[in-house]
Amino acid sequence: MNTTTAYKINLKQKILEAAFKLFCRKGIRAVKMDDIAASLSISKRTVYEIFTDKESLVLCGVKYFNDKMDREMDAYAEVPEHNPIDSIMFFYHRQLDFNRHVVPQFYEDVIKYKKVTDFIQNLKVRRVDDGTAFFEKGVKEGYFRQEIDYRMALQVAQSAFDNFHDSKKIKCYKTEDIFRSFIFVFLRGLCTEKGLQSLDHQLGLLK
Q: Environment class of residue 144 by beta-carbon count within 10 Å: exposed (0-12), middle (13-18) or buried (19+)?
């Protein structure tokens, strides 16, 4: 890899991280390319040399941070001492930390970009596939109940989370409170006695 290529890759990552932080904090439409350039002390032209428009920047940002989450989850799950409940709790805390730094306007804005929504829809299909395989493996290990259709359960959960950002009835609740309440009710219903013991152990560590 030559110096110029390495520089562009590094610059692209810096722009993605800076832009996504601004998008999450202010909403996508409120952030201009000038704002992103200013946050990095570079010219707007430099930003446009790497990203042709805001939609391509949003799309790359969403892909980048989803890939980053996948790598973190895979690395955590590969540790022999971590069981499926540990992995779910790790994901829960990472997601909770993310939601603390995201304004509701971000979710309202992101659906206005077709390429981004197409990517997210495809990602949801993959998440259900991956999640189904994860829970079926957990069934074999004795943590989850075997009589449950996990593909259906995940699709229902996914639909519920999608509605969280659309329903006016729950606008008065914090996203993290909704997420916390839902995931624990949902998860406990899937666990065997062995799974519940592991979950209760994890919750005990939080007290």
A: buried
- CB of 111 closer than 8 Å to CB of 124: no
Every domain of the chain and the residues it spans = 83-206
Task: For tokens 């609740």, name the residue.
Answer: 173
Domain 83-206 CATH class label: mainly alpha
C-alpha dihedral (116, 160, 27, 74), degrees to nearest 10: -60
Tens of pLDDT, residue by residue over 148-172, are 999 999 999 888 777 765 555 566 7
pLDDT tens, position by position, 14-27? 999 999 999 999 99
Measured distance CA(94)–CA(98) in Å, rounded: 6
Please state the three-class secondary structure of 110-125 as a single string.
HCCCHHHHHHHHHHHH
* Six-digit token string for 193: 């006695």
Give the contacts of 196 (CB within 8 A, at least 6 positions apart): 188
